[in-house]
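[INFO] parsing input record for Mitochondrial ornithine transporter 1
[DEBUG] input buffer:
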Amino acid sequence: MTHAGSGNGLDAIIDFIAGSLGGTALVYVGQPLDTVKVKMQTFPQLYGGMVNCFMQTLRKEGIVQGLYAGTLPAVAANVAENSVLFASYGVCQKTIMKLTNVQEVEDLSSFSNASAGFLAAFFSSFMLCPTELIKCQLQAMRPLRTMTAGAIGGMLFWTVIFPADVIKSRVQIQETNATFIGLFRHIFRNEGFMALYSGLQPTLVRTIPATSTLFLVYEYSKKFLHHLLDKPQTPVE
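[DEBUG] output buffer:
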């Protein structure tokens, strides 16, 4: 195939840009509930639940200074992570295609796509810890299936790693010198097991629209860029 190298480079650039746009969309859709999550994780005694925390923040701090506090660094972080993640994902897919003698991305098995996603997450972790990104056979999915896969993957991811995220938030907010294990034991002993899942509800609620938007914006940005550059691409129906 002619100009295979430049074609692969163009694919990586398109994946990078589409991932950046998807990461930006994810932040603006999900930031208010992410703020609620962090507040409930770090000061669980102050709030009577997700709605109470949301309303208190809105009433006392407003939309921009309250619910959207920290948006700019969040955008920078998500753009960095998702652009690298999706660019790496495309490169990893092509590498696996060569190793398995598969001609089209759509013909990759679920295991091959999952392997590409795992490798891409490894590379993106050099920028940031991977977020809720489970991407299996994304190119072959229609918008609803793409959004559903992103939402389910994100919810499962957060449910598994949430205790670690609670500890991370407390370390960042309280500036404690305690070790990860030490803080885990302290929370478990003094506040109970469920304190490690304080703030999970707004996180799961946020994950559904935010992660769905991430994948949808990524797919359609990628399709638009391929169309703009006159490069054939499997359409998203």
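[INFO] Residues 4-42 form the longest helix (39 residues).
[INFO] shutting down worker
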